[in-house]
Each structure stands twice: as structure tokens, then as C-alpha cells.
Amino acid sequence: MQLSLTTFSFPLPLLATATEAADSSMVLAAVLLSLVVIYLASKVGGELSNRIGLPPVLGELVAGVVVGVSGLHLLVFPEGGANSSGSLIMTFLQTTAGLNPDAVDAVFAAQSEVLTILSELGVIVLLFEIGLESNIKDLMAVGIQATVVAFVGVVLPFAAGTAGLMALFNIPVVAAIFAGAALTATSIGITSKVLSELGRLNSKEGQIILGAAVIDDVLGIIVLAVVASLAKEGMVDLGKVVYLLISATSFLVGSIVLGKVFSNTFVAIAKKLKTRGELVIPAFTFSYVMAYLAAVIQLEAILGSFAAGLVLDETDERVQLQKQVIPVADLLVPIFFVTVGARTDLGVLNPAIPANREGLVMAIFLITVAILGKVATGLSVFGIPQINRLAIGVGMIPRGEVGLVFLGIGSSTGVLSKPLEAAIIMMVILTTFLAPPLLRFVFPEPTHTTADTENLIFDGSGSNSLVIGSSDAKVSSPDERE
Amino acid sequence: MQLSLTTFSFPLPLLATATEAADSSMVLAAVLLSLVVIYLASKVGGELSNRIGLPPVLGELVAGVVVGVSGLHLLVFPEGGANSSGSLIMTFLQTTAGLNPDAVDAVFAAQSEVLTILSELGVIVLLFEIGLESNIKDLMAVGIQATVVAFVGVVLPFAAGTAGLMALFNIPVVAAIFAGAALTATSIGITSKVLSELGRLNSKEGQIILGAAVIDDVLGIIVLAVVASLAKEGMVDLGKVVYLLISATSFLVGSIVLGKVFSNTFVAIAKKLKTRGELVIPAFTFSYVMAYLAAVIQLEAILGSFAAGLVLDETDERVQLQKQVIPVADLLVPIFFVTVGARTDLGVLNPAIPANREGLVMAIFLITVAILGKVATGLSVFGIPQINRLAIGVGMIPRGEVGLVFLGIGSSTGVLSKPLEAAIIMMVILTTFLAPPLLRFVFPEPTHTTADTENLIFDGSGSNSLVIGSSDAKVSSPDERE
């Protein structure tokens, strides 16, 4: 914990080395406690949600809200404006572990840093697993439909949102464009997790949603670049747009083409290795390299790990790898969803704050456009008879963290009014939390019985044994297909 | 990455929110790159070490040195006195990812923070796995021998080291006591990993080494408290010693007694859960709670996770849990060993620095005492005919990070001369790196053939299938028993 020594000028109670050791162990203690809170919340929330027939991930999000900045203040992050005194875990550490009050801020900052990266690794592993569960051929088969859905799903909410805000609320054009842009995003993390939990990832609908969400992410960064340069310089930086378009497309196409070559190399390497981790270490190395490349070309890191998963799904080691990724995902993914909930500040719904009251009408408008815009998008699917168009539209609803990125950039340029900011946050929260139950509703119940499920889980070899030979929802536990 | 905004006063190129987002993604990119370096190093080093018949973990340590502060500077940490300009990964991020030079220090600090905690989680998971592979009854059966080994292994090197330094080198008494104390530690992480890799964890020798290393850790914190209060106040704080003794003993005894009760509760909870992670989440929650408790009473966190593993080894879910912990350990444990190597500054061996030359003779003395003191300790084992006493002594040799904690406290009080500091560091490095090959040497070869091993690994179900029904070295891959 050199950090505290170089960046803070507290009166150090001991000399450097001793303090470093103490400090680093305090950060570890804080992270351990936070993980305990996250795991308890994820299991209590997930199980309760599952009992009432909703996707477990909804319970994890809600449980995150309960332990987070809007609830018990066990899990709070500095960017919510919270400081260390607002964190119950820090208070707990001071009473139980003798954490020095002078060192609290440094420990809090370091703990938040670590949890943020762990949650980002969580969603990277989630998309890697989703990629392993998906199949390039299936995705390509619905490629045209997914592309149409993605484009319509960007254009429709953007146009309706921007025009509506200008016409109905007299919002200035640049601000209206920002709000409209925030309506275009799709949170691939939440949507893919729910689909996986419902056992629908490999259905035609699931593949279209997933493909469209990926393309949406690419469109999203382009919309973002356009809108940001518009706000900053008053004009669109066409060179940047072209650069983004080319780099993103070559990344996606390149990873599929090169993947064919690499998947053979991967198997050859894994077969040569004779020490532990002979499969997971090469697989995660590849996943992290792809995530890094995606991040470098300004795509999201999760698109890289998704592509890595898709590539490795083509190899003979697929089944064995899927089995080994399960416990890693089980431990990392809840960190992402619980912290998304914990970061959600419901203060925006508090009617005592004037901006919230003013924002409420705009929020109702934005939420309507957000939901109807994407549901209508589902109708654009053509050429596949008897497809569940409603489910596809609903699958595109959650805006999640992507919507908040738009908001962040918009806020920083100062074009958004307080009520409009509040309205955008309300829209993001509601679409994120409504999507899981809505998706559950539009996908009809599979025909499992509970008795079956219990036998399958506790037959000694555990749920993992189900992975082999099951083509649908290969990695999700049987209970979650309920 | 609020951190950079509140603690650094760089001229921010954009407004707050936009910078935060960019910064956090840079930290993620830096962590992803570091993990790629760690995984490549661990596999190259581990495989090469395995090929020449040595434990893979030695290769991971050496590969860590190669990529670390003494080698390629890919993986450096601030506490080694390195700053961000010494990190090749930071340079790489500046050229490939457009990392802003003004933000480099903040990203470097955050990345080091995250990697430090990940490596600590790595050794926590390692000891959890070792606990799952061990058996309370087997440990208790050799409890008396382990206790004797631990006590002799603390007293002998301490007395010989302190007396020798005073008599031969005219070192002042307090400094000699510190150096003597640094000789008492045993690195449970390195020793248990090597034993596991050699398939000797569940041998009588392995159980005695493990038990003695645990007791050594308890004795170590007491010696540390005595020595530190001696240096600071010139007298021993007897109250603190008694407190440490009572809390440590009650923790170890309490976790075994309460474990009997809890293991039933654990199984009952796991059976009730119907969503993913029904086994790993409760298990890791328990492990982290125990690690936290151990850290709070000033024991090491790893003793807590070891106790948690021991307790859960008593449950019916043991086999299933061991299988699921394997990939998690495979991904986290190498982070620990590679960073231990990366932090090792071989500059201390550079004869161009006067303190190193002066320290060299003392280092030769300390290393001799460190090795002979522990080897002689093995002779104290009684009552078990035909036991490999040499192997037990050799198993206690590695000082690892524990020795460095003594050094840190010693340095901070200012009683250690530069040559003596250098000598202690040389002793820690050599005992740590010598122990794996020595252990390999004192444990005779098992009778596996290479052909067997390859068939076992790539029979479709992978190495994990071997877990069931194998009582010896249950969790290690067959190749590592070679």
C-alpha cells in the first residue's frame, strides 16, 4: 500500500515499512468483508427471486440495492459522492480490526478500486462464458436479422426520444440528442445473463438478441463519438467515426476469421501442457488478450472476452473448459451484479428534491420511449416464421451501465439540465430492473418439474455433470431453467 | 477511479465524469495486461521446471523474477522503490492505449493495489485448497510431533543465529535478535504448494510439515510481538504476548470444535440452494469470514482459510467442492507465486554495492543457520519409525514473505545495519528458491510413467475426473505427482 504513503500526507504513526504492511492487510480485510457481503446478498437475493419464479439475477441486483448506497451502506463507492465515513464496512473495520481513523480514506479508496476491477473481471468472465455457450454458426445464421434489430433499435428510440424531448419539453437540441443517445444502448451483461438463466440463450430469439446487443455496442461507441464531438466542438469528427467503424468491424470479423486458425493452436498448446491449469490458463490468457484489444480500440472489454469465448467454443476442449469456467464465473459474476445494484442511487426517485419532481414527467416519457422503442424493434425481425418477436424486443430493453456512460459524458459537457439528468437515471434504473421480470414473462415456461431438478443437482456429481451433452443452456444449472 | 480525482492534483484534461470513466478502463487494461504477463510467465516457468523434474512452483517463482523488478520490468510494484516510469506495462499502455502521461502514476498505483490483493486472494485460495486436501484426524495424529518440530524449529535457528551474529560479527544485541527472529519463520504457502505438487501432502511427513508450519505461524507472530516491543520500548509487552497466545490458540481450537457443528449447517444450506454457485459461494463465504477473523486477531489471513478448508473437508460435499475449487485456484494461485518472484530484487546480490559485499559473509552464515537449523529440527521427530526426518527438516526451510515481514519491522525501527539487511534478504531469497528443488530431492520418485500421465489428462473428462476416489494428492493433477 505504497499509495497511502505517496499520495496522502497523514501523520504516519510508524515508519514506512511497518505502515505499509498494516495498511495492505487492512485493504485485504476490507475486500474480504465486502466479498462476504456481496456473496450473502447475491445468494439471498438470487434464491428469493428464483423462488417467486423470476430470474436470480434480478434478486442479485435488488440485493445490491439493499446493501448499497440506497440501503444499508455496507457497499458504497466513492464515485457516488460517498466518502469513507458513509461505509459501514469501514466503520466495522475501525471497531473490530483496529483500523486507524487516519488511514480510513486510503483503505476505502483502495478497497473501492479493487472491487471495481473485480466486478469488471466478473462481467468479462460472464461474457466469456456466454461466448462459450454460444455458437458462431448459430449467430451467423441470424446475422442479418440481428443487424436489422440493432439498427432499428438504435434509430427508433434515438429519433423518438430526441424529437419528443424537443417538441414536448422544449429541451435544447444538443441536450435532446444526448438523452436520445442514452436511449440507444443495450446492456449485454444483464440481457445475456437472464437469457442464460432462462435457458434461452441458444434459442433463435436468444441468438438474435445476443447478436443485436453486440452490434448495438459497436453502434453505441459510434453514436457516443458523434454526440461527444458534437457537444464539444459543435461539429461531427467524421475521421474518428470512420476509424471507430473500421476498427470495430475488423475486430469482430478478424476475431472470427483468426479464431479458426487460433482454435487449433489453442488445442495443441493445451495438449502439450503438463502442469495444473493446462486448460484454464491458456483460455483466460486468450480471453484477457482479446478483452485488452477490444478496450484499446475503444470497444468494450467484454466484447473481446465474448469473441474469445466464441472462438474457443469451436475447439474440442469446449466441454471440459465450460465445466471449469463455471465455478470461476460463479465467484466473479455476482460481484458485478451486486455492485451494479449497490451503485444505484435511488435518491433520484426522492420527490422531496425539486429536480426529481420536474424530471418525473420527462422520465415517464423516456421510459415509455425506451420500452416501446425496443419492443417495436422486435417487429422488424423478418424471414423467420413463428419467432417470438415480443421476446426479442423485450430482450433489448435493459440500458444498464452503458446508458450511464452517455449520461456521464453528457454531464461533463454541461449541456444537461438537472431534471433531465434525473430523468435519464430513472430511465436507466427502470429499464435495467424491469427487463429480467419482463423477459421471464414473454418466454413461456419450460416443462421441468421441481422434483427432477433437485435430483439432478444432488446426484453426487453435482450440477456440472449436466454440461455434457446438453445443447441448450449448456452451462446454466438446471434449477435456473425453471 | 475517484481516487485520482481526490488525491492527485493533475490538470484534468476533461471534466470529472469523463476522466473517471477513462481512468477506470485504463486500470482495467493495465490489470488485464499484467494478468496476461503473469499467466504466460507461470506456464512457461512451471512447464520448464516440470520438464527438468522440479516442482512447477519453482519455475513460477523464477519466471516471476524474469518478468519482475530484477528482469524485464514488466511486473513491478511501487514498494520496491519503482515508480511508474519503471513499468514496461505502463509504457506499453501509453503507446497502445493512449494512456495520458499525467494519469500514469495513478493508474500504476491502482494496478499495483489490485494485483497485490489478487495475489493475496491467491494464497488464501491456495491454503483453502490445501485445507480441503488435508484431514483434521491425520493432522491431529501427528499433532505432538508437529508441535515439537515447530518449537525446535523456532528455538534452534533463533538461538544459533542471534548468538552467532553477536559472537562472530559483533552485531548489537537487538539487531542480532531481529535477524535471529527472521530465521524462525516458515513459508506455509511455498512448502504446502510443493508438497501438493509432489503428491506428498497426505504423507506422514507432509502432515507434520503442514502442522508445524501452522504452529510456526502462531509462534512467529508472538516472536514478532516480543521483538518489536523490545526494539521500540526496550522491554517485552507481556500482556500483548499473552493476548496473542490466547487468541491464536482459541482460534485454532475453536475452528476445529465449531467446525464439527458448522459442517452440518453448511451441507444443509448448500442443499437448500437452487441457483448457480450453490456450493462455491457458501464455501468461499465461509473461507473469507475465517480469513477475516484470523487477520483481525493478528494471525495471518491464510490460516483462516486453511482452517475453513479443514472444516469443509469433513462434509459430504468435499469431493464436489474440491473439483470446483481447482480452476479457481489455477487462476488465482499463480498470481501469488509470480508476484513473489517479481518483487524479489536481486540487486541485493550485486557485488558492486558495498553493503552487499559486507553482507555476503553474514549472509553465508545466516543461510547456513537457516538450512542446518531447520534440517536439524527434523531430527526431533520421535515415535514414528521409518519416517523421513530429512524431508521434514527440508520442508521447513523456505522463509518466504514471512521472513520479509520481520525484516520490514526491523528496518522501520532503524536497528539493522545496511549489510545485515542485505544479508537477511539474501537468506530469505535463497531459502525460498532452494526449498522446492531440495524437497524434490529428499522425497524419492513415485512410480508413474509419462505415458500413463498423458492418457490420464486427456481422456476427455480431464484431470478433474481423477479427484474422485484418489486419497493421496487428491486435488493435484497427475502430472504434478511425477
Automatic annotation (TrEMBL), chains A, B:
It is found in: Membrane. GO terms for cellular component: membrane. The keyword Calcium does not apply. GO terms for biological process: proton transmembrane transport; sodium ion transport. Gene3D superfamilies: 1.20.1530.20. Its main location: membrane. Keywords: Antiport, Ion transport, Membrane, Sodium, Sodium transport, Transmembrane, Transmembrane helix, Transport. Coiled coil: none annotated. It comes from the Bacteria. Belongs to the monovalent cation:proton antiporter 2 (CPA2) transporter (TC 2.A.37) family. This is Cation:proton antiporter.
